[in-house]
Amino acid sequence: MGATGAASLARRGVSHVTVLLGGILLGLSGSGVLLLLAVLGRVRVATAIPTLLLVTTALGLITPSAAHGVLAPMPHVAGTASAVLGFVRMSGGALASALVSLSSAKSPTALAVLMTLFASGTLVTWIVTVSPPRCAPLSPSTLPLPSGTQTPQPNPAPRSTDRRRSPS
Predict the structure, then answer these.
(1) Given 3-state DSSP classes, what are the helix, strand and coil percentages for the chain, each rounded to the nearest 5?
(2) Per the structure, how many domains does the chain have?
């Protein structure tokens, strides 16, 4: 469902960065609700399935968008970049599985905590590495000049090179 939605959004011209952020927020929402349910002791099949569906849909949005973001800048090494992306995803899954299995909690709380931590870490990573800057970049006209230096004046408009005379 998520991958189909990502493809549909891409066909409509929605940026992969926007889809990526939407997927991250959806996954954080699903894992956060699951954590809340786990802390309250309200996790049942009927309450867990919708939250896990949100997280799975989020992964469907995130995966193709992240792959596009990773592969687009370096098409000449797309195979290697794709392999690295797969390695990072599988390593994250193995780490999460090991951490949940080491937990002493015999409830869904450990899984919910870890899912929320990973989703939060993903959002922080997006903010630091992908999100657009919050302030305008410095342009040469806004940079401070050394003391005693005059502000450069813009170039005058180019003069016309047409030397034809108008009829008098």
Answers:
(1) 70, 0, 30
(2) 1
- Angle between helix axes 16-40 and 45-71 (nearest 10 degrees) is 150
Question: Could you give the dihedral angle defined by the CA atoms of residues 10, 12, 13 and 17, in that order, rounded to the nearest 10 degrees?
Answer: -40
**What residues make up the domain containing 54?**
2-72+94-128
Residue 20 exposure: Cα atoms within 13 Å on the Cβ side: 20
Please state, in angstroms and rounded to a whole number, the distance separating the CA atoms of residues 125 and 24. 10
| Sequence letter at residue 133 | P
The pTM of this model reads 0.71
Q: Examine residue 140 and state whether it is found in any structural domain, yes or no.
A: no
- Per the structure block, which two tokens stand in for 18? 């926007």
Residue written as token pair 């956060």: 32
Rounded to whole angstroms, the Cα distance separating 145 from 104 reads: 61
**Is position 48 within any domain?**
yes
In a domain, 160, yes or no: no
Q: Does 31 fall in a domain?
A: yes
Return the minimum-mean-pLDDT range out of 33-42, 67-76, 84-93, 125-134.
125-134
CA distance 123 to 129: 10
Question: What are the pLDDT digits (tens) for 133-166?
Answer: 666 555 555 555 555 555 555 555 555 555 555 5
Q: What is the pLDDT of residues 118-130, one digit of tens each?
A: 999 999 998 998 8
